[in-house]
Amino acid sequence: MMAHPLHTGAARKRAASSLRQPHMYLRFIFSCIVAGIIAPAGFAQDRQSPTPTLDDLVKKNIEAKGGADALRALQSLRLTGKLLVNQGQIELAYVQMKKRPGEVRTEGTLQGMTQIEAYDGKEGWKISPFQGRKDPEKMSADDVKSLMEDAEIDGPLVDWKAKGSVVDYLGTEDVDGTPAYKVKVVRKNGDVSFVFLDPDHYLEIRVVTQRIKHGAQEEVETDLGDYEKTGGVFIPTSFESGRKGAPDKQKIIINKAEANVPVDDAIFHFPAASK
Question: Domains (ranges, CATH) in the chain?
């Protein structure tokens, strides 16, 4: 995997801490002096820069990921790493398998027990041994919504018209000190996602999704970062997700990504013996 220059979350914090090192101090001062000299010209250039359109942002997002051809060629994706919960005190082995046109299976394993959530493009199911349920159970339509989004290999902006979404550009908004481009995506199932793109690299750095789940409003915030190139496509390899504003969010760290691996469709379907 080849690293992308975009880093977010913990990587941004590490980058910030490096400025406090002694060997960086003089360089930092020099940079400030140079910035002060060229600032007037830079500000003038910024004022002249046209505001990007929605089409511009979608096009640059596709290009940043590797281009339309590379995205189309990526037919399946296996991600392997670790899932950290309970403020990082509990670590599970993590595996996620995605396959076009819209299938996904996610596993979390701890002490010989494996939590499974899967979606085959039509229905979702799960096995929840940590809740004492070791038999497969079909998931409700509300519970399946998040899996439908997880199944997207390309992200919410690529082919948004074909997906039946409605998309609007809402300007910029601060994301941990970054003036990110904010795009609203209304999916055909009614879920609303606010997608924040890095202003330099046009890749997703945060997605906030609002949905109705079991009659109540739910808002989930996911930060994405540490993009790596796999199969010609840049994909995020770190995720931090949870209810917006909640102090404890689960973290997923991917240490291996494999493109176009052979996969049996049966792993996504509800087990036949359980029907």
Answer: 10-48 (no CATH), 54-274 (2.50.20.10)
Contact 259, 84 (CB under 8 A): no
Question: What is the model's pLDDT at position 247?
Answer: 81
Per mean pLDDT, which range of 17-26, 36-45, 179-188 is the poorest? Answer: 17-26
Cβ-contact 238, 251 below 8 angstroms: yes
Contact 103, 266 (CB under 8 A): no
pLDDT band of residue 23 (cuts 50, 70, 90) is very low
Q: Letter for the amino acid at 119? A: Y
* pTM beyond 0.70: yes
Greater model confidence, 18 or 228? 228
The span from the CA of 259 to the CA of 37, in Å, is: 47
> Which tokens go with 151?
């199944």
Residues in the chain: 275
Residue type, 118: A
Pairwise CA distance, residues 26 & 37, whole Å: 17
In whole angstroms, what is the distance from residue 167 CA to residue 194 CA?
10
Q: 41-45, 51-55, 87-91, 257-261 — which is least confidently predicted?
A: 41-45
Which one is predicted more confidently, 90 or 46? 90
DSSP assignment of 41-101, as one string?
HHHHHHHHSPPPPHHHHHHHHHHHHT-HHHHHH--EEEEEEEEEETTTTEEEEEEEEEETT
Rounded (10°) CA dihedral 221, 103, 233, 52: -50
Buried b (16+ CB within 10 A) or exposed e, 42-69: eeeeeeeeeebebeebbebbbebbbeee
Residue pair 105/267 in contact by the 8 Å Cβ criterion: yes
